[in-house]
Amino acid sequence: MIKILDSTLREGEQTPGVYFSPEAKLTIAEFLDGIGVDIIEVGNPAVDVEIHKSITRIAKAGFKAKIGAHSLCRIDNVQKAIDCGVDFLGVFFSVSTARLQKDYDISLEAATDKIAHVISHAREQRKDLLIRYTPEDTVRSPIENVVKAASAAIQAGANIISIADTTGYTSPFHPQRSIYNIVKVLKQELAQLDLHPQIEVHCHNDRGLALANALDAYRAGADIIDVTVMGLGERAGIVDLAELLINLIDMVGEQTHWQLNYLKDLYDFVSDHAHIPIPPHHPVVGKNAFTHYAGVHVKAIAKDEKLYQSLNPEILGLKNNLALGMQSGYTAVELAIKQIGREELAENKELVANILQEIKVIAKRGTPIDIETELPEIIDRCTIKHLITNMMSG
Ligand code: HCA
Ligand code: CU
């Protein structure tokens, strides 16, 4: 079964301006654990003492999920992570030609020795630790460098190799840049050395293809996929948790264990604490994700919601709903009137038509019309007008 690593508390906190307090971090971890995420990457303890404390606290909280720390490829950093009592350690060090030359100024051999040295240190201390090695910017690195570094890491004790698309470079539609091929080739090359690590993928969204690439990697046999809530992360972020799960439930071909009904509350919580609104049209958890608006749509879904919905909102603990505005038709007004408990008025065709006309005028202000608070006022105004007109004509 595919595993999910959520990095909202690590990669997500690398979104400019985002800070999650220790309490918020614990609540987010609780939600993620409830959803059934396999690994929660909480942060890098070397960044700040508060992060160190949060990782330690979450690692001790007794979650089902494995709790992880992120670390530079340095003994002192790795030691800090181990001291937090984590189940999972992620060590990253790039072996791309450009990075080795321009950033680190070391040879591939020296890099490989360093990776092996740091990972052996971690392994010696904790036999049960899940250790991931990420050759950062994997997808723009020569495959021979990746194989060399990955095999050294595995021999030193790493269980997982992560293919990082650090800059959102891969594409399912570009054979030379497909993560599908990279997963296949890396697995093959390592298998030839009799090495069989779990393969993880970390896809950035710079080209808007993070989700497509993650699913492409899944098809190629990746074992673990990285996500964040709202796709938060550096620059354009990474794969969005809700979007990934909603696609995987159709792809895995067996019953999944994910509790999707927690997603909406988790997203609202993260959005509040990150001070980043969820776009209304965001798939799955956006305010409009199950809202029907135009006349033709509302008329059809009144008969069968599947006519304009391929997802079932109930699996998310949600319901579909209506919007009112310029695009609305008669049925929407009837349904909205019933929704606020004024069924008796829905029979009055002339009144409903007047309400629709008024809604179309109000819609020109360009913001949504709230059914619960505004519709009653609109009804009152129209009812009075309606009475006056009837009195005058009577
Ligand atoms: C980073 C870069 C990283 C690392 C991923 C990993 C990436 O912010 O440190 O360690 O698995 O995108 O390559 O997020
Ligand atoms: Cu990243």
Automatic annotation (TrEMBL):
The record's Gene Ontology biological-process terms are: carboxylic acid metabolic process
Q: Keywords for this entry?
A: Transferase
Q: Which InterPro entries match?
A: AIPM/Hcit_synth_CS, Aldolase_TIM, LeuA/HCS_post-cat, PYR_CT
Q: Which SUPFAM superfamilies match?
A: Aldolase
Where does the Pyruvate carboxyltransferase domain lie? 2-264
Q: Where does the secretion signal sit in this chain?
A: none
The UniProt GO MF terms for this protein read: acyltransferase activity, acyl groups converted into alkyl on transfer
Entry's Pfam families?
HCS_D2 (PF22617), HMGL-like (PF00682)
Q: Which family does it belong to?
A: Belongs to the alpha-IPM synthase/homocitrate synthase family.
Q: What is this protein called?
A: 2-isopropylmalate synthase
Organism, by scientific name, is Richelia sinica FACHB-800
